[in-house]
Amino acid sequence: KNEVEQSPQNLTAQEGEFITINCSYSVGISALHWLQQHPGGGIVSLFMLSSGKKKHGRLIATINIQEKHSSLHITASHPRDSAVYICAVHNTDKLIFGTGTRLQVFP
Amino acid sequence: KAGVTQTPRYLIKTRGQQVTLSCSPISGHRSVSWYQQTPGQGLQFLFEYFSETQRNKGNFPGRFSGRQFSNSRSEMNVSTLELGDSALYLCASSLYQANTEAFFGQGTRLTVV
Question: Which residues in chain B touch residue A98, judged by CB atoms under 8 angstroms apart?
Answer without folding.
Answer: 42
